[in-house]
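Fig. S4 source data, part A: sequence.
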Amino acid sequence: MKKLVLSTLLVLQAVFVFAQQNPALKGKVIDAKSQKPLQNVVATIQSTNQSTLTDFDGNFVFQTIPTGEQVLTIKTSGYTQQTFMLEPSANGETLDLGVVVLEEDITSEQQLSLVTITENDLGDDNSGSESTSGLLQATRDTYQQAAAFNWGLARFRIRGLDNEYGVTMINGLTMNKLYDGRPQWSNWGGLNDATRNQEFTMGSGPSDYTFGSALGTQEINTRASFYRPGTRISMSGTNTNYSWRMMGTHASGMNKDGWAFVVSASRRWAEEGYFEGTDYSANSLFASVEKKINDKHSLNLTAIYAQNSRGKNSPNTKEVNDLMGIKYNSYWGWQDGKKRNSRDKDVEEPITMLSHYWKITEKTTLNTNVAFQTGKIGNSRLDYQLGNNPDPTYYKNLPSYYSNLGGYTPDQLTQIGNGFRSNSQIDWNAMYIANQNSAFAGRSVYALYQDRTDDNQLSANSILNSSISENVSLTAGANFRKLRSHNHQNLLDLLGGQYFLDIDPFYSGNASQSDLNNPNRQVVEGDTYGYNYLLHALTFDGFTQFKFTYDKADFYLAQSFSRSEYQREGLYKNGIYADNSYGKGESITFENFGFKGGLTYKLNGRNYFDFNGLYQTKAPSLRNSFSNARMNNVITPDLTSEKITSADASYILRAPKFKARLTGFYSKIQDATEIAFFYGEGIGGDTGGDEDTFVSEIVTGIDKQNMGAELGLEYQITSTVKATVAASYGQYIYSDNAKLRTNDDALAADGRNSLTDFGTVYIKDYHQPGMPQTAASFGLEYRDPNFWWVGANINYLANSYIDIANILRTDNFSIDGTTGDNYSGATPETVRALLKQEKFDSFALLNLTGGKSWRISKANRNTVGFFASINNLLDVEYKTGGFEQSRKATFPDLQADQANGTPSFGSKYFYGYGRTFFVNFYINF
């Protein structure tokens, strides 16, 4: 009995002490203008990462919170975050914050400006800008804001990583394309209001939706009940890639019968964007409907349709830019008094998604999603047979070609330059005339076609989240994707002719036939020709993640497994590759795994140390798995999974007026593969060299090393003035040499082995291209209590490098394949000087932003407002990227081409926007 009484007393004492140490916390969140409660606002106790959502009436409750000084954040999309310092009572009394008022964050309009600026760069197939990393996330981190809103103009990449090393999701389903591993942002472009409910995980940190990768994760939630009820209509004007945009969105909120819906629509258009001849037309629709069946089950149906068509702008050499200016675009020409672009990109891939939310218990939920995506992506360009190259910047049209030939006087070269200026655009009329006067009656010698991809993809996943105990939570998920991708050449316009002959005129006999099963076909508009094949992919991946939360430390452990199966199926029997182009090829399978973990050590409620580490293997993309997919079933030689290692360490300070994060990071990517296509001279290995041949370049065993530091500082100087500082310094290099092969169709047409092994490509210590490796930003913001706001920031960007030509870094460049000796003059010093990687000039950008909102009806709490920005106020001219041409592939050829200072095959460059503006007017009701 004594033992029982003593035990009971001890238990009661423990309960009493527990109650003393773990008081409760509650509050109510409302809108500052409407005074209405806000649902699904996130309240987080930072030292524990405990989070809860407000209910229908705006209330939130924490049953227990730690004693001692604590920091509470309350945030939701579209509102300014509130931060509170708490000192819970040691006697266990409930801490009642009362009413918490959230003010509209009109700086969130900056997101609209961001998408306007960068969408023109996202998804290009010829500029390398697909690597623009997850810039569209909603986040409050000072560093990430600078990277997105200020440095994104210069194609800055967070930690130097391509966005294939991040995961973009909608409702937990991965949106990264199986073809190249990158998300196609245009699939939901223009739906800014509908995609604002986002969660972002930096680096390899833990996610509640997926295992992730080295860059991080971005989750877009389209659950209808999560949207703030109301209607929003906006009108925007800008001088970037489009001129005008109209958008409307309505969210009902959850009604008493358990229904909620959201609809959104937008249109964006321009006759001409910032660069010449870049037309733009986009229409987007969004709908989400949720039915709450009972307290445990809800169903949500989401439909997204985003159609986008835009004209591209050309990269140009320095010679062309000097003659025509950096806004010059060679892809367009006049037709019937209008500018017509020959290089349009069209995207139309609607998504339908059904989601089931199951609250199994108070501590366990299961979210299951099924989605189907279909549609097309097309990139148009000109085709020609038996005619002159219609590209106005074709090298024989430029003064440099004749200067390098020799024998031309300065006056004659000036006349050639003037002739180019007078004929600097595509001559559509000349092509129509040539087709009508063809030597073969009715046969077009010029045509406009589209490289077309028609995808059908089925996706499904389930995500389980469970609080196993007070300190341990489990996240587990499984994902499935099945893709059927039809890739073909689609004839768009015969340009006045009656048919186009489906042959390759550069070859003869069977080698000229695209399809030996249907030789010498006469194709008309809408027909498939040239190449025609299917890519099949079947992938599965699963992961588990355990998070442990304690007073002084949190840590997590996660692991993943994936299986990917690829296969090519040729629909044409190509004349060059008759034996291995038609029918299904060999199926290839990759099995991969990953492990990651991290630790957060809490000195107190304000100071933290955070560590993350990851190792995973990653299957190559479909694009890189077949070395010449348009022509045959050949699998890329030496193909293997990538190995990814990453780590980061951070010091984080979170105080009411001052926030800071300093991070050091490291990542290493091994055994990557890249495939490129180009015309080259002096390429052919020991076969004697083939002049002016079209090859696919296969580089395997690529190793990359990225290391550096990030800094973000934010200080609330007064209640209305805030200062921010952000900086990034990185060193992103190729950490080892790689292997290079070429696939030459001309060799195959002659009955020889099409693959030539060039051995080692010497790229070690060259810099990775296309992004600033140093960036810094300083900003000031004034936010007036009367709901107007203005801000300015100055940004410095440096250490950006050109994309090097790999074939020039092989022994083929300096060693004569006939004699085995070095070319005359090709000493280590002269080769090094000729192949020195170009470093772009550093530059500074000054940006101004501001906005104002008004409440126009006290009864209905309606608001109107505007947001405006001026980017690159000083109209600075700067390069955002570029690439060396591979045409002159040997030392004597390249040296001769550069001898006069103006090479015929010089590097080509992309430029950023000059001074641009964005103005957005909106009404909320």
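Fig. S4 source data, part B ends here. The chain is about 10% helix and 45% strand.
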